[in-house]
């Protein structure tokens, strides 16, 4: 029996909302592992430190993330010259709020030092982050702008491989984060070996989770 349109969108909306919440949690867990966060999350963390240490401006992680997403979105819209990408504001704003929710309200006093705990957190963070992004994608609602940025790079540099193009973007983010870190006197900051590992495995892991999420949600969405 098919669901009516309203019920369909309610279920998709719930999955979408859970995806945003899980993405924010994954970002925070990885940052607290101190073993390496996602490429653009290292940029967020180190740029926040730059604002605080160099300009005495204390902003939240979510605020900085929204700023970075907005810059990327502006470029995507300039390249395509299409207003439809304005819908990407929804996950941008939602993930920014989710990052601050976990960082400020839930995990504010959670900063483990034991290496084995941090190693577990890294593994959990990778899984949760990928699951959150997969949940957003499976709804077919607006996703983040980095996929569009990847497609643009493929066209500009004539790269045929989506994975290779995305790797270039991730590596650029890590280099940018490292630059921000040293300027703000925190060294590599959130950049660690796990950042490079995550850049390699996050794509295949999302594809793997998306495959099974699609099987689970298809009866619910139709």
TrEMBL record:
<keyword id="KW-0472">Membrane</keyword>
<feature type="transmembrane region" description="Helical">
    <location>
        <begin position="85"/>
        <end position="110"/>
    </location>
</feature>
<protein>
    <recommendedName>
        <fullName>Integral membrane protein</fullName>
    </recommendedName>
</protein>
<dbReference type="Pfam" id="PF19700">
    <property type="entry name" value="DUF6198"/>
</dbReference>
<feature type="transmembrane region" description="Helical">
    <location>
        <begin position="186"/>
        <end position="206"/>
    </location>
</feature>
<feature type="transmembrane region" description="Helical">
    <location>
        <begin position="55"/>
        <end position="78"/>
    </location>
</feature>
<feature type="transmembrane region" description="Helical">
    <location>
        <begin position="14"/>
        <end position="35"/>
    </location>
</feature>
<keyword id="KW-1133">Transmembrane helix</keyword>
<feature type="transmembrane region" description="Helical">
    <location>
        <begin position="159"/>
        <end position="180"/>
    </location>
</feature>
<dbReference type="InterPro" id="IPR038750">
    <property type="entry name" value="YczE/YyaS-like"/>
</dbReference>
<feature type="transmembrane region" description="Helical">
    <location>
        <begin position="116"/>
        <end position="138"/>
    </location>
</feature>
<keyword id="KW-0812">Transmembrane</keyword>
């Amino acid at each position: 029996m098919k669901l009516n349109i309203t019920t369909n969108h309610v279920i998709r909306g719930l999955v979408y909302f859970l995806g945003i919440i899980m993405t924010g949690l994954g970002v925070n867990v990885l940052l607290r592992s101190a073993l390496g966060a996602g490429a653009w999350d290292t940029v967020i963390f180190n740029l926040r430190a730059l604002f605080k240490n160099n300009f005495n401006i204390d902003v939240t992680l979510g605020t900085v993330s929204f700023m970075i997403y907005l810059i990327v979105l502006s470029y995507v819209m300039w390249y395509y010259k299409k207003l439809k990408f304005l819908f990407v504001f929804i996950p941008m704003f939602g993930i920014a709020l989710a990052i601050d929710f976990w960082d400020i309200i839930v995990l504010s006093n959670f900063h483990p030092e034991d290496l084995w705990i941090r190693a577990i957190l890294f593994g959990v963070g990778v899984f949760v982050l990928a699951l959150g992004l997969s949940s957003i994608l499976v709804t077919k609602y607006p996703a983040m702008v980095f996929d569009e940025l990847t497609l643009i790079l493929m066209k500009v540099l004539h790269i045929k491989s989506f994975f290779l193009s995305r790797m270039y973007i991730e590596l650029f983010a890590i280099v940018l984060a490292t630059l921000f870190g040293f300027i703000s006197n925190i060294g590599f900051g959130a950049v660690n070996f796990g950042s490079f590992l995550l850049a390699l495995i996050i794509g295949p892991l999302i594809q793997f989770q998306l495959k099974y999420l699609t099987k689970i949600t298809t009866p619910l969405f139709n």
